[in-house]
Write a structure and sequence with these properties.
368 residues; Rossmann fold; seven-stranded parallel β-sheet; 14 strands; binds UDP-4-deoxy-4-formamido-beta-L-arabinopyranose
């Protein structure tokens, strides 16, 4: 038996004997979804290793995570596109699996800069998958690779009906959604070629809200594209009013309907997905949504009710690429993983507002 393989076996025996918490590599772990998932992983007795280049996140998050969880954070600063770096990280930490969140995620930006998105999202996934192949699959190596992948409801394109189940046809209305679709198809091909892979694909609907401590939250670069951070910036006075993109959709009040899911529920979904893959070894694809659709004006009303803050708005033209309605049928996640969203829209609004109040300029200027 090669010396490397023997060393790996010894390392795993040591880990078992030393009761070290099992490690999980969390790419994009300093981002909005990554940071909240980090906290839930630690609470579940799992030791996350963050791999992040801070292109779409702030270094201050690392200190906030140490503050919330009471222990230093294992950080590997670098780009998931740097395959030798990723391979080295995997060999040094020997994680039980990988949760892959790193990537770009602004729909509008992806329309303007498609190549940036194809390179960062698809290129990043290829780099990670090949690094995992090299580290897990060889005989005597770490064993069957385990991956939880951050996908998106945008792979459904413009759904013919709602609510949406996982077997709905896939499409895309923008390059961002296209990258998620391509990566899902790549993962299907990898599993067909190497059945040892254990892969959980999570199709997020609309994440919103923040950790109750208000130490971590959503802090987009520049002017927010997403509704909730835009709302909180209007409420705190950083932006003059909310532009409601379209008042003539075929929806109850004419404005776009989406499935908003609390970031804490979404983060829980990652831990549950990881555990299911470890327990059964069976791959799956699930929607992570609440199963309820809310219009833009519903969200504005819920925000005002939850915070008492006025939100001036104007109804303007539709935003290119938007669909009228998109909300989940989350019953497969419930049946397969025993997971369901528990937080309300009002809690998302209250938690998002608390984050914005405590961090008026986001992470840049620290907590108020
Ligand atoms: C929600 C609703 C807008 C801003 C995208 C991605 C999805 C996920 C979330 C990454 C729509 C309306 C918004 C504003 C508005 N991204 N709106 N004024 O487009 O549903 O989803 O972001 O994981 O994958 O596709 O989210 O928050 O941009 O829009 O009226 O200033 O709010 O028209 O109806 P979206 P969103």
């Amino acid at each position: 038996m090669p010396l490397v393989a023997f060393a790996h076996i010894l390392f795993h025996l040591y880990k078992k004997v030393s009761h070290q918490a099992p490690r999980i590599l969390l790419t994009g772990g300093a981002g909005y979804i990554g940071s909240h998932t980090f906290v839930k992983l630690r609470e579940a007795g799992i030791e996350p290793v963050i791999l992040d280049n801070f292109a779409n996140s702030h270094p201050a998050v690392v200190d906030r995570l140490a503050q919330i969880t009471g222990a230093p954070v294992l950080l590997e600063r670098g780009d998931v596109l740097d395959q030798p770096f990723v391979e080295d990280v995997l060999r040094r930490h020997a994680p039980a699996g990988v949760i892959h969140l790193a990537g770009d995620k602004a729909v509008g930006e992806s329309v303007a800069q498609p190549l940036k998105y194809f390179r960062s999202n698809i290129g990043g996934a290829i780099s990670l998958l090949q690094a995992m192949e090299a580290v897990y699959l060889p005989v005597g190596a770490l064993g069957a690779p385990l991956l939880v992948f951050s996908s998106s409801a945008t792979v459904y394109g413009d759904p013919a009906t709602v609510p949406i189940t996982e077997d709905f046809p896939r499409g895309h209305t923008d390059p961002y959604g296209h990258t998620k679709l391509v990566i899902e198809e790549m993962l299907d091909a990898v599993r067909a070629a190497q059945p040892a892979w254990r892969i959980g694909v999570l199709r997020y609907f609309n994440p919103a809200g923040a950790h109750p401590s208000a130490l971590i939250g959503e802090d987009p670069n520049g002017t927010p594209a997403n509704l909730m951070p835009y709302l909180t910036q209007v409420a705190i006075g950083r932006l003059p009013h909310l532009r409601v993109f379209g008042g003539d959709y075929p929806t109850p009040d004419g404005t776009g309907v989406r499935d908003y899911i609390h970031i804490q529920d979404l983060a829980d979904g990652h831990v549950v997905a990881l555990r299911a893959l470890q327990r059964t070894g069976e791959s799956f694809t699930v929607n992570l949504g609440t199963g309820r659709g809310y219009s833009v004006l519903d969200v504005v009303k819920a925000f005002v009710d939850a915070t008492g803050r006025p939100v001036p708005y104007r109804i303007v033209d539709r935003r290119p690429g938007d669909v009228a309605q998109c909300y989940a049928d989350p019953s497969r996640a419930k049946a397969l993983l025993g997971w369901e969203a528990r937080h309300t829209l009002e809690q998302m609004c209250a938690d998002a507002w608390r984050w914005q109040q405590r961090n008026p300029q986001g992470y840049a200027t620290g907590a108020a």
